Here is the input.
Amino acid sequence: VYPNPSNGEIIVSGLRPLMELEVSNGLGEKIFLKKNSGLQETISLNNSPSGIYLLRVKTRYGYLVKKIIKE
Here is the structure.
């Protein structure tokens, strides 16, 4: 996941097809949800305010959670 902190665009790499990506804000509201189709996904937070967000990647083994900071 890079760049982190970010000004709006986040790149998630090293994915497998059909993994589910979800980004939620500090209130737990989902602001992004997608099943990726490739090895890399770009997530735009340009329309979201600065703050801390959580990226959850659902795999067949469970979830990976990463904190994202938008400046």
